[in-house]
Design brief:
mainly alpha; about 80% helix
Length: about 55
């Protein structure tokens, strides 16, 4: 993949689902920690990126 190529929105939605699963596992094991908040924030950020790229 070259830098000049477009980024597919599907990459962001797949990564967002991965972060959602990881944050759920982290929350079940350790509760509400800074890592859980970080993973949840990353999931939200990637969903926003997906929506932004899809509207383009």
């Amino acid at each position: 993949m070259r830098i000049t190529e477009t980024i597919e929105p599907s990459y962001f939605i797949v990564a967002a689902f991965g972060f959602i699963i990881l944050s759920f596992i982290q929350y079940k094991k350790f509760g509400k920690t800074i890592e859980t908040k970080f993973l949840s924030g990353m999931a939200i950020f990637y969903i926003i990126c997906f929506i932004t790229l899809s509207l383009k």
